[in-house]
Automatic annotation (TrEMBL):
Name of this protein: Katanin p80 subunit C-terminal domain-containing protein
Superkingdom per UniProt: Eukaryota
Polar residues composition bias: residue spans: 1-10
Keywords annotated in UniProt: Cytoplasm, Cytoskeleton
Keyword Disulfide bond belongs to the record: no
Cellular-component GO terms for this entry: katanin complex
Keyword Cytoplasm: yes
Cross-referenced Pfam families: Katanin_con80
Source organism: Hevea brasiliensis (Para rubber tree)
InterPro entries named among the record's database cross-references: Katanin_C-terminal (IPR028021)
Region (Disordered): 1-22
Coiled coil ranges: none
UniProt xrefs under PANTHER family: KATANIN P80 SUBUNIT, KATANIN P80 WD40 REPEAT-CONTAINING SUBUNIT B1 HOMOLOG KTN80.2
Single annotated GO MF: microtubule binding
Length: 228
C-alpha cells in the first residue's frame, strides 16, 4: 500500500531573504558619484596659438622700429640745424666764425662733414684759422668712430706740413726788439698752436695702439711733428 507523504514529511523550500542593506560595490559607486558632483570641473589653461605669438612678436618689432625711427629722425634734424648754423657764417665768408661755431657744437659727425669740405679748400686756411681748427681736430682724435679719427689725422697731416715749421720757428725765435703788434699777435697765435700740437703728439700713442690705417696715419703724423 502506497504511503502518501504528509506535509510533515515534506521539507519546505527555503527562499533566502533578500539583503536589504546596500552592497559594498553600490556604496562605493554612490560615494564616487557624489564626490564627482562636488569636485569642480578642471579648467583648461588658455593656450596661445602660433598666430597670436607671431602677432605679438611682430608688434614688438614694429614698436622697436618706430622708436628707433623717431630717434634717428630727431638726430638728423639736430644735425641739420647745426649745419645750418655753420652755413650761416660760411655764406657770409666768415670762415673763422664758421670754425668757431663748429668748435662749440658737440657733434663729431657735423664736425667731420665740415672738415671734409675744408680739406678741399686748403687755400682759404690761414695761420689764424689753423689755430681755431686745432681744438676741433684734437677732440676728433679721441672719438670712438674710426672715420672721425681718420679725417682728423688726414687734415692734421695737411695742416702741419704747411704751418708746423712756421709755428716752431716763431715760437723758438728770440724776442723781437721794439713794438710790433702784428709780430706779437702772430707769436700768440703760434703759441696757441704749439700747445695744441703738443696735445696731439701726446694723444698719438693711444691712436697707434688701435692699429689699422689710423695707426699708420698716426705714425706718419708723429714723424712730421718731430721734423717740423
Amino acid at each position: 500500500m502506497d504511503r502518501t507523504p504528509t506535509t510533515t514529511d515534506v521539507n519546505p523550500r527555503v527562499i533566502p531573504e533578500t539583503d536589504r542593506s546596500p552592497s559594498m560595490a553600490t556604496d562605493m559607486t554612490l560615494r564616487t558619484v557624489c564626490e564627482m558632483d562636488r569636485t569642480p570641473p578642471m579648467l583648461e589653461e588658455p593656450q596661445i596659438s602660433g598666430r597670436d605669438t607671431n602677432s605679438s612678436k611682430f608688434g614688438d618689432i614694429s614698436e622697436d622700429l618706430m622708436q628707433t625711427h623717431d630717434v634717428f629722425l630727431s638726430t638728423l634734424k639736430s644735425r641739420l640745424t647745426k649745419l645750418q648754423v655753420v652755413r650761416h657764417f660760411w655764406e657770409r665768408n666768415d670762415i673763422k666764425g664758421a670754425i668757431n661755431a663748429l668748435r662749440k657744437l658737440p657733434d663729431h659727425f657735423v664736425q667731420v662733414d665740415v672738415i671734409s669740405i675744408l680739406m678741399e679748400k686748403m687755400e682759404i686756411l690761414t695761420l689764424d684759422l689753423f689755430s681755431c681748427l686745432l681744438p676741433v681736430l684734437v677732440g676728433l682724435l679721441d672719438s670712438k668712430m674710426e672715420r672721425h679719427t681718420s679725417v682728423s689725422l688726414e687734415m692734421l697731416l695737411k695742416l702741419v706740413a704747411v704751418f708746423g715749421p712756421v709755428v716752431r720757428s716763431t715760437v723758438s725765435a728770440p724776442p723781437a726788439v721794439g713794438v710790433d703788434l702784428h709780430a706779437e699777435q702772430r707769436l700768440e697765435c703760434c703759441k696757441r698752436c704749439f700747445v695744441q700740437l703738443q696735445k696731439i703728439q701726446q694723444n698719438l700713442p693711444a691712436v697707434i695702439r688701435k692699429g689699422g690705417m689710423v695707426a699708420k696715419s698716426a705714425l706718419e703724423l708723429n714723424l712730421v711733428l718731430q721734423e717740423s
